[in-house]
Amino acid sequence: MSSPSSPTFANWPEGIPTCADLAGEALFARLAARAAATPDACAFPAGGMSYGELLDACQMLAGYMQQRLGVRSGASVLLSLDDCPQRAVAVFAIDRCAARAVPLEPLEPLDSLDSLDPAARVPTTAARAAIVAPASLPELAPLLDDGTLYGCIVCGNAPARPGLHDFAGALSAGIAPLPLIHPLDTWSTKHELA
């Protein structure tokens, strides 16, 4: 299992575990607690977003996925991003939706993240949405064309076509996440949603 300090996790928030050893506590709940305690502290070792900004970005992406792409509790979301802050935002947002992040290709570092289910190597046809780098688009184009995949959020430059959504645009849309109704959801029952 990789640790957050390894090169594969250079862009993972400090103080937030990446492993499934959280005693049933959701990954997003850990981020929310950290952001409440230290909202202005820098979240990433290399600088950039604060914990408060990271939490806001995750909530906006979660809201966009829920309300524009129909991602709901238990849904599968394909994920194919290199180590970057956007990958952390995506993983936390997927967890906030109570959905499963499923690596588009088997990558060991992604398998060690809490909200990823390594046993759930579902076929790409079972996923509702995807968050990917532009390089993954050729593989997903047939699924977008036949309507199997409802939408794809692209982190980077991508051609304009139906079903593609810009990562930065999803964050700037300002769509708040829906309240969760899920047996494992302890976060939304304890905190008021923005």
Automatic annotation (TrEMBL):
Pfam families per record: AMP-binding
Residue ranges occupied by any AMP-dependent synthetase/ligase domain in the UniProt entry: 32-112
Database matches in InterPro entries: AMP-dep_synth/lig_dom, ANL_N_sf
Lineage: superkingdom: Bacteria
Protein name from the UniProt record: AMP-dependent synthetase/ligase domain-containing protein
